[in-house]
Amino acid sequence: MTLLVRVREARHLGLVVALLLLAAVGLITSPDTFGTSSNLVSILALASTIGVITVGMTFVIIGGGIDLSVGAVMALASVWATTLATQSYGPVVMAVCAVLVGTGAGLVGGFLISYGRMVPFIVTLAMLVAARGLAQRMSDRKTQLIQPENSAIVELSTTRVLGLPLLVYIFALVVVVGWLVLNRTTFGRRTYAVGGNPEAARLAGIDVRRHTMMLYALSGLCCGIAAIIIMARTTTGSSTHGDLYELDAIAAVIIGGTLLTGGRGTIIGSILGLLIFTLITNLFILNGLNTSDQLIAKGLIIVIAVLLQRRGLESRT
Amino acid sequence: MTLLVRVREARHLGLVVALLLLAAVGLITSPDTFGTSSNLVSILALASTIGVITVGMTFVIIGGGIDLSVGAVMALASVWATTLATQSYGPVVMAVCAVLVGTGAGLVGGFLISYGRMVPFIVTLAMLVAARGLAQRMSDRKTQLIQPENSAIVELSTTRVLGLPLLVYIFALVVVVGWLVLNRTTFGRRTYAVGGNPEAARLAGIDVRRHTMMLYALSGLCCGIAAIIIMARTTTGSSTHGDLYELDAIAAVIIGGTLLTGGRGTIIGSILGLLIFTLITNLFILNGLNTSDQLIAKGLIIVIAVLLQRRGLESRT
Amino acid sequence: MSELLVMRGIVKQFPGVRALDGVDLDVRAGEVHCLLGQNGAGKSTLIKILAGVHQPDEGTITLGGEQVRFSGPVAAIRSGISTIYQELDLVDGLTIAENVFLGHEHARLGFTRRGEMNRAAAELLGRLGHGELRPATEVGRLPAAAKQVVSMARALSHRARLIVMDEPSAALAHDEVANLFRVVRELTGQGVAVVYISHRLEEIREIGDRVTVLKDGRTAAVGLPARETPTATVVSLMTGRNVEYVFPPRPEPGSHDGRPEVLRAEGLTLPGRFADVTLTVREGEIVGLAGLVGSGRSEIVETIYGARRPSAGRVLLDREPVRPGSTVRAVRLGMGLAPEERKSQALLMNETVGRNITIAGLGTFARLGWIDRRRERAEAARLVKALELRPPDPDRPVRTLSGGNQQKAVLGRWLTRHGDGVRSRRLLLLDEPTRGVDVGARAELYALIRRLADEGIGVLLVSSEVPEVLGLADRVLVLRDGTVIHESDARDLDEARVLDMIMEGSAL
Amino acid sequence: TSNEPEAAAAPTQQTAAVGGTDNDQPGTRVVMGFSAPAADHGWIAAIAKNAEAQAKQYADVEFKPVEPTNDINQQISAVETLIQAKVDVLVLLPNDGEQLNQVARKAMDAGIPVVNLDRVFPDKLSYRTWVGGDNYGMGVAAGHYIGKKLKDKGVADPVILEIQGIATLPLTQDRSKGFADALKSYGFSVTAQQDAKFTVESGTQVAGNLLQAHKKIDAIWNHDDDQGIGVLAAIKEAGRDEFFMVGGAGSANAMRDIQSGSGVLEATVTYSPTMASSAVKLARLIAQGKGMSDLVENQVPQSITLASETVTKENVQAYLPLGFES
Ligand SMILES: Nc1ncnc2c1ncn2[C@@H]1O[C@H](COP(=O)(O)OP(=O)(O)OP(=O)(O)O)[C@@H](O)[C@H]1O
Ligand SMILES: Nc1ncnc2c1ncn2[C@@H]1O[C@H](COP(=O)(O)OP(=O)(O)OP(=O)(O)O)[C@@H](O)[C@H]1O
Ligand SMILES: [Mg+2]
Ligand SMILES: [Mg+2]
């Protein structure tokens, strides 16, 4: 037991160090803004959209798959939930609609992958393309504003409890539930088996196909929740939401130590990975670096973070 | 031997069928434009940039890796080769510069992956970000025109031999050389070993690390060549070139039947996959579809192509 | 004869384990030197050091009178040592010939000479008695036994002076082993030394010249004469105690007759594999399937289990028809399968021993999907102890266990005690359950299997070792080319008769 | 294009105009926040550069640009950060006016005047002043140029192609609408429409395919001169010249092409990034509570729309200095 805990700690040590280093840089370069509580809130709010998606992505990748469609599915869910027709039913229906659309898209992709035995990369790429197209059609390529009578959705971003906007609590809830499901339930444990050795999982009596399908549905569900958050933050639904989120989410998961080949990984690692990315962006914002330099610096920081993490991993052997 | 040939054929049968179906659709919907030789030439010219990159990507993926940096490295190479300084040395130096920059970037990434033992996804993502940043800095975010005295580069696109622009020959040459290297040399065969079972490759005395590094250098080299082609086609070097090429190239390789887990795949499959993509775009534009409908249709076609290909694969067992 | 290889005081430390703690080994040119030891004794580790895969922490290696130090596998190969590893080390995507010559291809200017390699590979395969294997076939499409042949061809391709074989016979059937021995004799006749590792003691007696015994990472005995040393002595050197290498007593013949049938398979057919197989297993009965490799035993077992879908026939468990093609149903109804290839079919290599054991019965430790981790851990710990896994730590990554101990973990998966409301195992399908398991553990496994049967579980046993089938099973079915050619009480058969039956008319 | 040697030093002087009125005398100190989309495109890059160059002209302005990004979510965070930093005035070019509306409103509510650049916020309470181009007018200008010319030539049923920028941007839709409306007045309509992504490369690819789809073309309107370089390259590659083309935005490069008259590009309709310089100037005045010296009003007006002008061979000389280097 203690051994196990120690291994886990070491596994994330590098990430924590990287995060602390970034924070130190922030405190030094922007002493009066970085450490303020409002800045920290802003970091968390920024992280929450991709954060929710990252939780779903962690499941999919541990289960041996990949989901490129997350950003597009989130966009589709946001558009569907903000059509005038949906909006006429009020904010609750809008939220439910977003979640259902996300889950539905995930189910379709998951079905093709598990029962159609197609490669996840291709299926979710096709889903990305098709979902964006559908979102554009549905919205006629326009940005759809949330009507004043449905401002309850927007209030998720403006209402604060204990200083934090409600959407940060949604994010936290998703992380906690995700962690519990992954570590404390049969579903989570089987996810590791399905990703680590699908043949062995099948012979151990796990319904690998159904499980795989559920993983994509779960990822879609997270996209639906992320859609609610992005709707709250931007007050809109739009086919342009979530562009390239897939890359950010996958990168966060992998920096967090999850193997792209499946069978291994943690939610905490993914969230730490994501926070590193968000912190980098925040630091750049505060320091007003120009884009080109930012990009170069970002590349270097990613490499350094991974090197740090690898040290952490090695120290345990 | 004959068995092997038959297996190979069957492996690509689905792709060929998909390609023929698309061609049939083209001939039916645009009878006077689709089948013209100038349209076919235009498709080949369009395919040649990503085509060259796809060859390198095929090596990397068979070797068990992935390269997200291709588009950005191509952009960097095109920018470097078109700075006023480089241009002052004439077209040959420009071409050599593009190839060297590409190969160099590949070597750096490959070194970090093989000797730094970092995950290819992250390293090449970092390279993507950094190379774009560097390209922006170098070009000051401007589009760099090729000077009239270096128009020899542009002539690769305008000069035709036997009806085909020179750059199509470059593309063909890269494919043929790539095929030979993959199938007929020790380097190529060892690539399968390195990707399929790195431990076995190591035990067999293959220098897996050096080999891995060379694979990324090869991919970088292809990006350099692609940079020359894009310079010829657009008459410019620009940091915006090659946006999202990584997705297209990886998708082509995977539709072509190469396993994302490495150890298996063919160049021919990748090129067929790429031609399918190019044909889809061409058909859409010939038929004046708008982008949204294009996206939806593209998603569906990808799924159908893969289903067809899977049938082809299964028919052999 | 002179000593070709001398290893002295070899020490190898892995995190948390001292795998080797001062091992000595002397090998002479032209001899077959057998390495014996329990699972986890350090045999594979020792030969990996010899092959340059691991570097020793302490100790010296002298080869042909010169002290050597191998920085990697290439260095060892260059010095004339070639190795057949315990875990197959082939590349699925390449052809047989390409695998044989991987790393030392016939090539000119980097271009491979395929014709030449195919010819050379065909020659090596012919020498191994497998002329029927085509060098241009992709290795991924070969069955395990054929892969083993390719591994051997690869070892031969180096023209080595010392060939190390780590359990080469584990995946081979009887007649294949004979082939292997012919090649080994041919090699030693040419002055090549062979280091041979096996858990089958009768093989040692047949092929071995001298024996070195390892126990817990130390040398327990060096250079014993292989043919003269009594088995009991060897076994007690290995285990440190006296193990009766015997099978547990079985119930009287016919004592199962009146008991209900746990399993009934009727007319099972899978075209090209097996046809019209009918068999039954009664409560408390152990039924053995004997046959050559490729006779379709694994396929039959997998079909019963629902991992393959038959084209005809049906399977009844406790008289209820089982839906074909669903392992989920099979497990829920009370079947369990220990598949033949533990690495690819059974183990979750990233996980701990404990999690590997509990994965199949996870539902029984959980309520509404929520795992009761205390109960899970307790059960894993109990089984690790009951199966005498070494080291007895459920939290160890299963990857770091020796082959035999991994096999025990696979068996343990089906021995978890079941909580309330969940049906416990009714039928165990054991495909080569003792592959790579040492003598001591083997005796324990036999006793365990018999005990499970006595508790009322039905057992269907597949083994390539005929004595094992005869000694453990109550009833034996003999298979040839996918059809049952004989069925009788195990006591009415002897090894020679079974071999006669399965070989007769066989293509192999 | 940066490699025109004579133009290398141009950008700063061309856009950071310092007038001769006392408004340019140093006043109270102004901390000015600035946020715009990622500068991955010539026009936007010119916007960022012009803004910065203009701000540098004033000793009393502290210019605080934040990370440009194409992700709405991040731009919202960036603006929030500027609000927290309590800047005196904000210049905002939102990725999407509607999506950034809420945060702009938040800034206004916090007492920070917002100068809205280019893409407009739907809610007038979200900005103090809007400065921007006339996208609809741009389409109209292009439509009139093409319509008139074809009418004069007496072409019946002309093949008119339109190559848009990013299709999902409202500004693209405005431009297309203006174009279609103007053409309609001549009895013409757009034959085919495709969108490129504002990049040279996608310009090449889209144009390459379009040229195959239409064997005879009369006119092309390309929304953006940046991607126009690629469009022209594709035209050259295909060896076609039976039509004429009109550009958009007004890059220096396009103007030089028009001036030389050697290619198919005959005109371009402006959408000048100089508006960024103007926005910075206005923001400073607003923060200092001054009005515009050429107007009698005491305060800066609520909105300023730049006219889209048509640059042709005849008047290109006058516009060249204002063309931006793409
Ligand atoms: N890479 C490794 N990391 C940690 N421990 C290891 C590693 N490889 C082997 N061990 C440990 O070293 C010991 C010796 O293992 P080894 O594989 O040499 O046993 P063996 O004698 O070959 O057993 P078997 O007969 O079961 O194959 C075992 O306790 C094993 O768990
Ligand atoms: N040595 C071999 N060479 C070629 N083909 C083989 C060989 N061994 C097996 N096969 C093929 O594999 C198929 C089934 O093999 P499999 O190993 O499942 O048989 P098995 O009777 O279960 O033997 P075992 O229990 O030893 O694995 C056979 O139909 C045969 O075609
Ligand atoms: Mg071993
Ligand atoms: Mg078998």
Please give a handful of descriptors for the protein shown.
heterotetramer; C: 508 residues; alpha/beta; Rossmann fold; 3 domains; 6-stranded mixed beta sheet; 17 helices; 24 strands; globular; D: 326 residues; 6-stranded parallel beta sheet; 11 helices; 42% helix; 17% strand; disordered N terminus; binds adenosine-5'-triphosphate; binds magnesium ion
Structural write-up:
- The complex is a heterotetramer, with two copies of chain A (317 residues), one copy of chain C (508 residues) and one copy of chain D (326 residues).
- Chain A has 14 helices and four strands.
- With 317 residues, chain A is mainly α.
- Chain C has 508 residues and is α/β, with parallel strands linked by helices.
- The longest helix of chain C is centred in the middle third of the chain and has 16 residues, at 174-189.
- Chain D has 326 residues and is of the alpha/beta class.
- Chain D has helices at residues 10-15, 42-56, 72-84, 97-109, 135-153, 170-184, 200-213, 225-238, 252-260, 274-288, 316-319; strands at 30-35, 61-65, 89-92, 114-117, 129-132, 160-164, 192-195, 219-222, 244-249, 265-270, 303-305, 310-312.
- The chains are: A mainly alpha (317), C alpha/beta (508), D alpha/beta (326).
- At the A-B interface, helix 6, helix 12 and helix 14 of A face helix 6, helix 12 and helix 14 of B.
- Residues 43-44, 86, 166, 402-403 of chain C line the site of one magnesium ion.
